[in-house]
Design a protein that fits this description.
The protein is of the alpha/beta class and 453 residues long. It contains 13 helices and 13 strands. α4 packs parallel to α8 and α5 packs parallel to α6. The longest helix has 44 residues.
Length: 453
């Protein structure tokens, strides 16, 4: 027994570091590489790029670290809270904290976690494009005449909605566009149903006021057709207000975020889109009672007024009232007659004054005076013009004589001569004359040609 290793370990006193190191060696040598599946929790990304998270299931949890240098292909699979993954790595002990952990070497999304990753990625992209904006969401019509259902024609969901609609608003017309709400072709059928109802509303179909698209509860995979992009696009493009009613109250799909209104269940959607007929009837009765009360009160006020008029002097002494009114009419007529006479007299006096003013300004006398003034101005204008013409003629003659006196011909007449070059230019200086040059001398009575020696 002295050589038993278990007994030897039990009898030895370890330090914490020694014991932790032994546990680490035991785990790494006996277990080593592991592949574990679970749900990501407590996820955090450090500035260094290392990722720390806890992998858990319903009964236990496991610490994990994914160092930046061990990402496959240099990039890490995006992780998020609640994501289901499969990790592969080495089981070891983090001695500083005395806990065992997995040093992750690779991560792969699995099962529901992969769908969640697709859901989150599509949700982020559509949100960035503005498909979820509250500003574009329209209110539901308060009193629709036609409601269209895009859902499976079989099962309890469509029956529940029809019962609710029939109970609350039996006058509303209900159209059912049958589609599959689960499986590979379900998304395409739902999208086409929404587009068909928009296209044919008011054409081959009655005008549709609101659409309900939905189905009952189920797993994430069962509801996945309402997470497809083609369905989201069809809802976004719908000109008819649309209510999304998928699954239970805790289920959320991409269709819920795009729709104008999200109902937690199909039955609640049916209650939401139509008013309660019983409540409407109560409201109509209340309005009728109120109207009856108002009419009764008004009739009472009119009866009181009639009673007052019957008791008034107008009904008790009608002839005296009429005589008094006739006397007031006569008095008013006399006042008007006097005012009219005074006004006519004033106007007559004004006309007389204006007539006297016109007579003092006879047109024939005014015209004769203006004619005399014009003739006097005309005679004066003729005298001024004649004198001005004589003065200008005399001035022109003086200038003509001066021009003749100063002209070359005048200079020659006074006994002078003009020396010209052979080309006819005037010679003004001796410096312009050269030996052998031909010259022309112009005199009063002719020209003389000469050669300079």
């Amino acid at each position: 027994m002295a050589n038993d290793p278990v007994t030897a370990l039990a009898s030895k006193v370890f330090t914490v570091s020694e014991l932790t190191a032994n546990v680490r060696k035991t785990l790494e040598s006996s277990i080593g590489q592991v592949c574990v599946e679970g749900e990501v929790s407590n996820y955090r990304m450090q500035a260094s790029g290392h990722q720390y998270f806890t992998l858990k299931d319903a009964k236990a949890q496991l610490a994990c670290v994914w160092f930046a240098g061990r990402f496959s292909g240099g990039r890490a699979t995006p992780l998020s809270e609640g994501m289901a993954v499969q990790i592969r790595g080495a089981l070891t002990v983090f001695e500083a904290q005395g806990k065992y952990q997995v040093n992750v070497q690779s991560v792969q999304a699995s099962g529901t976690g992969l769908l969640q990753a697709k859901f989150d990625a599509l949700k982020r992209r559509l949100q960035e494009e503005g498909l979820f904006d509250r500003a574009r969401k329209r209110p539901l019509p308060p009193h629709p005449a036609t409601v269209a259902l895009v859902t499976s024609p079989t099962g309890s969901v469509v029956q529940d909605m029809l019962k609710v609609l029939g109970r609350r608003a039996p006058w509303v017309r209900v159209l059912v566009f049958p589609v599959r709400v689960q499986g590979q072709s379900a998304a395409a059928e739902i999208a086409e149903g929404i587009r068909f109802l928009n296209r044919e509303s008011g054409v081959s179909l009655p005008f549709i006021d609101v659409i309900i698209a939905g189905r009952g509860g189920g797993s994430v995979e069962d509801l996945w057709c309402f997470n497809e992009e083609m369905v989201a696009r069809a809802i976004f493009e719908s000109a008819i207000p649309l209510v999304s009613a998928v699954g239970h109250e805790t289920d959320f799909t991409i269709a819920d975020f795009v729709a104008d209104h999200r109902a937690p269940t199909p039955s609640v959607a049916a209650e939401t889109v139509v008013p309660d007929g019983i409540a409407l009837r109560r409201e109509v009765r209340a309005y009728g009672d109120r109207m009856e009360t108002l009419v009764h009160n008004q009739l009472g006020r009119w009866q009181q007024r009639l009673d007052y008029l019957e008791r008034s002097a107008l009904f008790r002494e009608p002839r005296a009232r009429l005589a008094e009114a006739a006397q007031r009419v006569d008095t008013t007529a006399e006042t008007l007659r006097r005012a009219l006479q005074d006004r006519l007299g004033s106007l007559a006096r004004k006309v007389e004054v204006l007539g006297a003013s016109v007579r003092s300004h006879r047109p024939d006398q005014v015209l004769a005076l203006r004619r005399q003034q014009i003739e006097a101005v005309h005679a004066r204008l003729e005298r001024v013009t004649s004198s001005l013409l004589v003065n200008k003629s005399q001035e022109i003659e003086r200038l003509r004589q001066k021009l003749v006196l100063l002209s070359p011909e005048g200079t020659l007449e006074r006994g002078y001569s003009i020396a010209l070059s052979e080309k006819g230019g005037v010679i003004r200086s001796v410096s312009e004359v050269r030996p052998g040059m031909r010259m022309v001398t112009r005199l009063r009575d002719g020209r003389v040609e000469s050669v300079v020696e």
